[in-house]
Amino acid sequence: GDSVTQMEGPVTLSEEAFLTINCTYTATGYPSLFWYVQYPGEGLQLLLKATKADDKGSNKGFEATYRKETTSFHLEKGSVQVSDSAVYFCALIPTGNQFYFGTGTSLTVIP
Amino acid sequence: GAVVSQHPSRVICKSGTSVKIECRSLDFQATTMFWYRQFPKQSLMLMATSNEGSKATYEQGVEKDKFLINHASLTLSTLTVTSAHPEDSSFYICSARGQGVYEQYFGPGTRLTVT
Questions:
Q1: pLDDT tens digits, residue range B9-31?
Q2: Are B49 and A97 a contacting pair at CB < 8 A?
């Protein structure tokens, strides 16, 4: 069935370090892929998305490229800030309604 | 962007009682709302999907008589956990979607603790 496998955390980085959070998926057809972010005490917010192969989603310095050949959608940021500390969820919608979420990766950025 | 609120943010109740959680779309009409449950260090698990004015569609394994969902208006859906037990303790998150779009907007979640 459809599923998302996400890098386990927690991840702790120093400010200005490079971030990669791995995400791979299993799905039939051509799903849309998403990264959501959850800041402490808040709801999930859409960070970026990609709807077809080779699309690159980007927002706030974060990027992820839809790689159909490797079924991956890794999240990257070149230089993290303390304000990026949050939990990041990879997700997909294969077709229709239902989101499939990864387990979430907690990121802490220290000054 | 679109805003979804949940109330309460935290609730503690005694075993055997019922508790209601509200999910509201504040600035758009939510034709479809979704209820998720999140266990510690686990994924969000979809519990049910509700369309305004219709009965909710429950995912396999979710007891519809225990988790009552009502979506009576385009801005409000409620989840009532009936006869709550400690194993129902969890983080419940709702999301909402407008007509003709697939993007969902998530509420901040409700932490339920059953003692």
A1: 999 999 999 999 999 999 899 98
A2: yes
